[in-house]
Each structure stands twice: as structure tokens, then as C-alpha cells.
């Protein structure tokens, strides 16, 4: 198990946003936990210094392209990138230094997996450089994949069969529990347990983690196979959990 860092970009700035608060309605802004003028490249350089590989840069909407490129350049080969990735633009980000591209909306269309699109992005990018974002919301006991900044629910539920089928096309999964993302109220333990039990490839969980104890719960429930991201709870993003403590925990776990 590893700690995977993050850089969430909104309007070109590093922010931490409550995942369930996004809306495309005019005049409706998402709930923002944290915003900084500190360049995203600074965060990427810090992650490189601490050898935290495999984290993700997420472009939340338009206006983030240049900020994302700067972050990738600061940690070449060290981070994944997602947000509006298609076969047409994937090479731009890979050439700029991303180790992988993360895809959601291009693959999930009209509530289902679009097979031709999935095969196309895998062929263009290569399976070993593709991450499928299966971020989801809990609905009546099922975890339904959510697209378009977690606003649109699909009919695709996370299950052993879903994870097995999709693992043939990508190198890793990224799963935000969008219903707990940014709320700092603890992780969704059932979701972590499901991922640890059924994912046949590396998977990173994000959502609600706020302490070293939460990281330990992810390690146990995920059977040591589920990596973890922490955002809003970290002191570098305005929270109370020292980033240095998480880095130290990460190094202990890797030994």
C-alpha cells in the first residue's frame, strides 16, 4: 500500500472541493474547502522531493491546461493526469510528463460503458499508461460510477465482474467515493473493502480520509492492495493532518 498525493485544479488554481457540490447550473459554484495562489508546480516538486509517485493531477473543468502542464513538468514521469482526457489530447499530457492519463467520461456514455471508446483509448494510449476513473456514489447499497465531475450517475455498479472486465483495458483504477469526498468525515469502509477484495489491478481510493488511523483502516480493509489519497485533511491544503506525518507513515509501510 502507498500514499498517493493529489493536485486538484479548478480555474487554474490548486483547490480542494467537496465532490458532491459540483453543478453545471449557471451561477452555482462548488463548495471549496481550500484555495491557494501557490503554483501547482510547487506541489508537484514537493511530491518529487518526497518520492511520492503515482499521484494524480485532476483538471476540474476548463481553464486548467497550462497549470496542469506546469505541474507535470515539475515531476516528469511521476504523476497521472485526468479531466477531459480523450484520444485526441492524451498524447499532449503524456509528452508533457504524465506517466498515465485518467479517463472517465469518454468511456462512460449514456449510462453505460462505451465499448468502442474504451477500446480506442486503450489502443491509442496503451494499456500500461491508462487509468480508468471509477469514481462513484453510493445508491441503495450499490456504488454507481459517476461522470462529468461526479454529477451524472451511470448504470454501472462496481462489482467483481465490473472490475475484472475493465481491468483488461487499463493499468490501474482510481476511485473517489464522491459522496464522502472533501467532507473529512471518514472513509467509506465498505467501498474500500470491495476494492481490496475484487480489484485485480492496482487501485487508489480517495474520499473522506482525515487521519493516520484512516490510512491504517484502508490498509487493513483493502488487504494491503488499495492505495490512498488524502486531500482536504492535509495541512498543505488547510487541514489539520500534517503532510510530514503522512509521508513518514508512507515510508514505514513501504519498508
Note the topology.
Blueprint: E1 6-10, E2 13-17, E3 32-36, H1 40-49, E4 55-59, H2 65-74, E5 79-82, H3 90-95, E6 100-103, E7 108-109, E8 112-113, H4 115-125, E9 130-133, E10 136-139, E11 142-147, E12 152-157, H5 160-166, E13 172-176, H6 189-198, E14 203-206, H7 212-221, E15 226-229, H8 243-254
Parallel strand pairs: 1-4, 4-5, 5-6, 6-9, 9-13, 13-14, 14-15
Antiparallel strand pairs: 1-2, 2-3, 7-8, 10-11, 11-12
Helix pairs in contact: 1-2
Report strand %.
Answer: 25-35%
Separation of the first and last Cα atoms = 11 Å
Strand order of the largest sheet: 3-2-1-4-5-6-9-13-14-15
How is the CATH topology named?
TIM Barrel
- The poorly predicted ranges are none
* Class computed from helices, strands and strand pairing: alpha/beta
Number of E-type strands = 15
Number of structural units classed as domains: 1
Specify the biggest β-sheet: 10 strands, mixed
